[in-house]
């Protein structure tokens, strides 16, 4: 989805001409011209060679119309994709954000204390599954010391490197004398896939707001999206003149850590991105905890598909949690949960928790506990 661009009217450069209508027009033109030249009627049967030839010509010509329609639409921000969109963005001096690597902090621990310093070079790798993380800077464990923490970056770009909890990167790929173990002391985060067409189009739409230093909300939003496409949502508020508080979350409702907040803070503090008089504070939203407790039923008529529906209902519950946490300030809404459960195949559900809750605009809702109980098959006619 492309945000505000979705509100603009649909456009067609061929007036929504269908192939069936186009073919009919060609055949009518043929029959009229034949009548004009010979004075005879010519109703072409379905298998007539002339009709098949006209059909083949119509296919090629209509395909050309489709290319024409696509080429025209690629000049419009609402429809443009790929390299066409990149060139449209260039007119606003906007470039597509490349993929970014996830980062973490690795802790290296000695087998025993040494009388001299032990150096960890740049590029030393540790791995989890098939992903490698390499140190971004060198460091030395001082004589008599046991360990050192160094920043590390995933060698695979994109979101694939996100989400590994502390203590899960434990395989040292490049052995170092006296180093007994390695482990990440922070969750991996910050990785982002290349900016999508929809994300880029939305940012191009906001680009005029960034021509001067920020001030209007859209200007701050433009610079935030330019900083990282991994930022899912932001909430911008100014409760006092000259003071701006910015709350952000990353994809999948991830709360930013201190390093991510400082990174965006430093980026926005540049003089060409904010007014000199603005005091900008980048913050993480408060977590509003809620519980899920649901009993659901499946129609007896779906008995043969019972196991598949149960899996879909479990997935729907997970998707509800993601939906609930994808927007800062989104109220806790059990009606959305009911809709998603029914759409997944449940015929009836009793939602004990959560109840509707209006939350603070600078908060994000996070499920504290989930209890999803299957109540069995039920005759949908008596519900």
What does this structure look like?
This protein has 383 residues and is an alpha+beta fold. It has four domains: 3-79, no CATH class; 101-184, no CATH class; 210-284, GMP Synthetase, Chain A, domain 3 (2-Layer Sandwich); 287-382, no CATH class. The chain has eight helices and 14 strands. It has helices at 19-38, 49-73, 82-90, 197-206, 217-227, 258-268, 306-324, 334-344; strands spanning 101-110, 118-120, 125-128, 131-135, 139-141, 147-157, 171-172, 179-184, 231-240, 243-250, 279-283, 286-299, 348-353, 363-378. Helix 4 (197-206) packs antiparallel against helix 5 (217-227) and helix 7 (306-324) packs antiparallel against helix 8 (334-344).
Low-pLDDT ranges: none
| Beta strand % | 25-35%
- How far apart, in Å, are the first and last alpha carbons? 37 Å
Instruction: Characterize the main sheet.
Output: 6 strands, antiparallel
H/E topology pattern: HHHEEEEEEEEHHEEHEEHHEE
Number of separate helices: 8
User: How many discrete domains?
Assistant: 4
Query: For the largest beta sheet, what order do the strands appear in spatially?
Result: 7-3-4-6-1-8
Taking all Cα atoms into account, the compactness measure Rg is 30 Å
Task: Quote the average pLDDT.
Answer: 91
Tell me roughly what share of residues is in helical segments.
Answer: 25-40%
Could you name the key traits of this structure?
383 residues; three-stranded mixed beta sheet; GMP Synthetase, Chain A, domain 3; alpha+beta
């Amino acid at each position: 989805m492309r945000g505000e661009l979705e509100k603009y009217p649909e456009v067609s450069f061929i007036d929504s001409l269908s192939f069936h209508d186009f073919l009919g027009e060609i055949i009518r033109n043929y029959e009229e011209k034949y009548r004009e030249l010979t004075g005879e009627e010519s109703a072409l049967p379905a298998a007539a060679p002339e009709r098949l030839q006209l059909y083949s010509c119509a296919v090629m010509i209509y395909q050309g119309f489709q290319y024409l329609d696509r080429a025209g639409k690629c000049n419009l921000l609402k429809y443009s994709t790929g390299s066409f969109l990149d060139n449209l963005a260039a007119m606003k001096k906007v470039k597509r954000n490349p993929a970014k690597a996830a980062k973490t902090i690795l802790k290296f621990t000695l087998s025993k204390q040494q009388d001299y310093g032990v150096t960890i070079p740049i590029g030393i790798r540790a791995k989890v599954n098939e992903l490698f993380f390499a140190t971004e800077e060198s460091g030395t464990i001082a004589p008599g010391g046991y360990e050192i923490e160094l920043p590390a970056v995933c060698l695979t770009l994109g979101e694939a490197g996100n989400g590994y909890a502390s203590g899960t990167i434990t395989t040292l790929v490049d052995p170092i004398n006296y180093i007994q173990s390695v482990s990440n002391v922070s969750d991996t985060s910050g990785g982002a896939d290349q900016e999508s067409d929809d994300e880029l189009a939305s940012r191009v739409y906001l680009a005029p707001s960034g021509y001067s230093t920020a001030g209007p909300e859209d200007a701050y939003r433009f610079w935030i999206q330019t900083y990282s496409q991994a930022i899912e949502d932001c909430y911008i508020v100014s409760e006092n003149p000259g003071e701006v508080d910015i709350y952000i979350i990353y994809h999948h409702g991830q709360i930013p850590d201190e390093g991510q907040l400082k990174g965006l803070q430093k980026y926005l503090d540049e003089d060409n991105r904010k007014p000199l008089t603005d005091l900008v504070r980048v913050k993480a939203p408060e977590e509003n905890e809620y519980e899920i407790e649901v009993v659901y039923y499946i129609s007896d008529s779906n008995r043969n598909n019972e196991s598949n529906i149960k899996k879909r209902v479990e997935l729907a519950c997970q998707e509800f949690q993601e939906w609930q946490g994808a927007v800062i300030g989104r109220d806790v809404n059990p009606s959305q949960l009911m809709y998603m459960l029914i759409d997944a195949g449940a015929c009836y559900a009793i939602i004990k928790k959560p109840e509707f809750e209006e939350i603070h605009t600078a908060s994000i809702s996070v499920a504290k506990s989930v209890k999803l109980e299957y109540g069995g098959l039920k005759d949908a006619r008596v519900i």
